[in-house]
Amino acid sequence: MAHAHPVKRYTGLMDWLTTVDHKKIGILYLIAGGFFFLIGGLEALLIRVQLWKPLNDFVGADTYNELLTMHGTTMIFLAAMPVIFAMMNAIVPLQIGARDVAFPFLNALGFWTFLFGGLLLNLSWIAQAVPDAGWTSYLPLASPTYSTHKGVDYYVLGLQIAGIGTLIGGINFLVTIINMRAPGMSFMRMPMFTWTVFITSALILFAFPALTVGLVALMFDRLFSANFFEVSGGGNTVLWEHIFWIFGHPEVYILILPAFGIISEVISTFSRKRLFGYSSMVFATVLIGFLGFMVWAHHMFTVGLGPVANALFSIATMLIAVPTGIKIFNWIFTMWGGSIKFTAANLFAVGFVPTFVMGGVTGVMLAAAPADFQYHDSYFVVAHFHYVIVGGLVLGLFAGLHYWWPKMFGRMLNEGLAKLTFWTFFIGFHLTFFVQHFLGLLGMPRRVWTYLDGLGFNTMNLISTIGAFLMGVGTILFIINIIVTAAKPKTAGDDPWEDGRTLEWSIPSPAPEYNFAQTPLVRGYDALWKEKMDGNDAMTPAEPIGPIHMPSPSILPFLMSLGLFIAGYGFMYAENEWTGIMHDLFASHAVAGAGLLITLGCMVVRSLKDDHGFHIEPDEITGKGVKA
Amino acid sequence: MSAHSHLDGQLPHEPERATLEGRNKVLGFWLFLGGETVLFGTLFSAFLALRDQVGDGNPTSQELFKLSLVAIATVLLLTSSLTSVFAIQAMHRNQVKSMQLWLIVTVVLGLGFLGLEIYEFFHYVHEGHKFSTSAFSSSFYTLVGFHGAHVLFGIVWISLLIGQVYRKGLTVVTAPKVYVAGMYWHFIDVVWVFIFTVVYLMGKVG
Questions:
Q1: Which of A340, A551, B146, B189 makes a 20 to 30 Å CA pair with A471?
Q2: What was the ipTM of the complex prediction?
Q3: What are the BP-aspect GO terms (chain A) (predicted)?
Q4: In this predicted structure, what is the pLDDT of residue A577?
């Protein structure tokens, strides 16, 4: 039955460029996301250096606007999302007992479009035309009238290309979770992380196309003189705000839900207890996802939509506190009476809970529309969203990375260094952002490059800057930990924490290329824990050992994304001040056309050429597999 | 995962769902169409918000739109949706020749629609209704143009599939491709029904 199709298998760099293995793609996402995290972090530090004393002139106002815009954009789209995708790729197929994701080829395509979109955006620094209209890119500030250089074009096209990758990833994980679960893995037996990824993917699917349209409209305004947001031509700037936040609010739940999932796994494992209130956790996740689409206008309370709209969006926003509160209590009750082990991963998870509650409480405060008129555009808002995104998501990601590191790389991170990472980052975080609540209440406006002396802002800004550097130290400690760990032998066992509850801990670390030599039979929630409690050493297989079919590697995803990257540059520089052949090539849209042709050509090749894949024979299926 | 166990004879009853890859493809495509719905929904919202912003001296929708032309285009596209159903029914009966014939008819009707739309756009530009004229014109061309681009993509896609089935025959690999292309074609047909109503009929009346 399994006749051999010869398949070219690559090594070295070509292996990484052509891989369709979700575990390797997860590692690629982690490297690229980590890289952009460092860039965004550096931008944050420069912002804090500028603000450490009144009337500082470390950077000019223009540079400050660029740093601020790129910090927000990079952190949301190019650091947070990819690291979430890294965890999704590395863990979700293992947690549901699948050999692969539903669309391995598209998975690779999603990664490469994200990377090329992110590179395009950041190359704006080299082109000296950096986006400077804020990460929300409000109109008319971002319009061709008021933003005359190509900065916002980089924003529009970079995010457009990266957004394609995110959308593809969302669809891929929805289908994977619906269609590829192992026998017995019913929806209500799925691990909590998989559940949150499922809901996050649905949010991606229904939120990102709105951003696509918004970016297209802004691009048409800027490149082809359309009038969507051009008031002189009848356009409407509030329209952009609606479109942006119809995407943008679900986006914050896209970010935080996977962190909720990670926290649920880590706290349950290290409390050595079943997650308290599993079904209510699932229900709360679905409800948050649903309500996440109903609240976008709470970003626009001061626009003047009227008291009825403000009241409705205010109430809808406050409602979200209910399912979120359910989650907080469930985590606390999971720890209650458990035999808790304070590993570094668990420290991050436990530190997450009170930090996120603080972010949630200020969220409810901001949800009260009349009060929001006071908080709006002040540092209070900055403190709030950093508490939920850094104190929530980033602590969650750190917890997940420390927890799953052995499963991804086969090596345990150094616990001592990891705990030091936690304490420096955690204390640094609170130093940085706690005082910003009060700066905001005192009236310090966000997004302004400096402030006057004698307003009572000085001490708190200094504390904030010191805290930011402490977070920087924490990040460096984490990188040192990675380097130290990488030098050690791969000794992590299948279940290195010894209390693993879910399927990923039933297979070797790192997981072999085919994940499961035999698809496991799932007999209950916390599938591996159940077998342990029943006195079994391993999962019951659901099938005999046989040849395993694998998809072939392919360079096409890389080339398709490269084509989009070239096309992006082509459109952006169709209007340029160059001379000679370069001018003609760009002005005639030849470069843009060539880029699109590469992408479409690759799609045709992909459609016409059947991918037969290859088989891994039973005698090859031995202990350890994929090289990390 | 024996997607590629080549055919020894009879094709299964629903070849598009015979393999896990096929089922993934069909489900993934349904979800993709969900995302496309949001995409067009946002475009419709933008158009509805801006359609009265015509500007002084520019042609209004009442002056521009010729319903007879649009009605012919609508008939062409609706009919092409029907013929694509015939193609999928032929596929389920394993009649490859008939399937290809209906797909060709679908493509020809789609080309007819696209030709009329291009003529229409040229006519409008001639009337002074350019892309950059007003917020109404920008949102009109973006919405209707996005749909037109989808039709063009569908024509190229289905044409390539006709060639592919001609070369490889109908298999559990090619059948899901034809099936999702059919889904796509229905989707752009449904979008057109909304465009015809919201853009043209409401533009003529309201």
A1: A340
A2: 0.93
A3: electron transport coupled proton transport; oxidative phosphorylation; respiratory electron transport chain
A4: 83
